[in-house]
Amino acid sequence: MSRMNPMYHHTNEKLRSELEWIQLAKRDPEKFAPLYEKYHEQIFRYIYQRMDDKELAFDVTSQVFLKAMNNLHKYEYRGVPFGSWLYRIAKSELYQAFRDRSSKRAINIETVHLATFMDVFEDEENEINKKRLLSSIAELKEADVHLIEMRFFEQRPYKEMGEILGITENNAKVKTFRALEKLKQLFNQNNR
In the 8-state DSSP scheme, what is residue 191? Predict the structure, then answer.
């Protein structure tokens, strides 16, 4: 049984409460504050982990929330947390920041999540070292790293991953499985 991170998972009651906040904010932008307070830290961490430039991460995070407020009238509830929509905006803003500033993408993985992720490599669980895994992750395409981060570090459900990426839940499962297979291949190659 996998552990769920409560930061990224919502009960139906939490989703209904969030939907009420969204409806209020659509009528009065000043009512956006609870959504901002709930998601600001998550979105900032998501962005900062990918760019390794704190000031730029703050700027991009601000841009995400500005876009969200300005486009809130376009938001449609789809049975997943509002954060999914914010992550889609954040992903777009990150790519724009990389293009605009020729920024270098960073992979910033907290050691605490590494042990959980290494459980995926059952047969070599006791032999894996952090350096080899990080080296393997660095060789993956950015889209594959993003899938692995969402599923294994953020422990997001496939439905929410699909919503963030603009793909179906099933497609999110397939793409994540393929990314994991690529990572396993690289990991085994780096063992030589």
Answer: T
